[in-house]
Amino acid sequence: QLQLVESGGGLVQPGGSLRLSCAASGFTSPYRIIGWFRQAPGKEREGVSWLNTPDEYISYADSVKGRFTISIDNAKNTVYLQMNSLKPEDTAVYYCAADQRLVTQRAMGLLTPNDFAYWGQGTQVTVSS
Predict the structure, then answer these.
(1) Closest CA to 31 of 112, 80, 98, 126
(2) How far apart are CA 79 and CA 28, in angstroms?
(3) DSSP state of 88
(4) Within 10 Å of residue 22's Cβ, how many Cβ atoms?
(5) Which helix or strand (DSSP H or E) is residue 106 part of?
(6) Given CB 3.0 to 4.6 Å as the disulfide criterion, which of 38, 50, 66, 118 pairs with 92?
């Protein structure tokens, strides 16, 4: 059973930084998609960033480009989301999500929450002064 465990959320002032971690276990395929979604109160869940293996194609939502960086430590099966220059509108519950299949580079930019079968429990990120 594939499991995802997030950590690293918290309260930060505008302009600050946080790093989220997602420790994954139980993968049975080398073809994986893993990344981050977020959901603010009263809003739909939206994609933030994800990558695939083994190619490590990366996709970012326009709202976080230039501020957030996704990375993977394959030895630890852990994906990180470094979030810099945080804004109040980044406040949300952040979820790690994963799936196991081959994805083309073009398809990476078109993924939605429905494309991910496995989800973590979520971690709260609050950006406020």
Answers:
(1) 98
(2) 17
(3) G
(4) 26
(5) helix 105-108
(6) 38
Alpha carbon 96 to chain centroid, angstroms: 5
Question: In tens digits, what is the pLDDT along the chain, a chain of 129 residues?
Answer: 999 999 999 999 999 999 999 999 999 999 999 999 999 999 999 999 999 999 999 999 999 999 999 999 988 899 999 999 999 999 999 999 999 999 998 999 899 999 999 999 999 999 999
Q: Which residues share a beta bridge with 53? A: 32
Long-range contacts of 85-90 (CB under 8 A, 24+ apart): 85/15, 85/17, 86/12, 86/14, 86/15, 86/16, 86/17, 86/18, 86/125, 86/127, 87/14, 87/127, 88/14, 88/127, 88/128, 89/40, 89/63, 89/127, 90/38, 90/64, 90/125, 90/127
Angle at 72 between CA 90 and CA 105, to 5 degrees: 85
Decide: 3 and 117 in contact? Cβ < 8 Å.
no
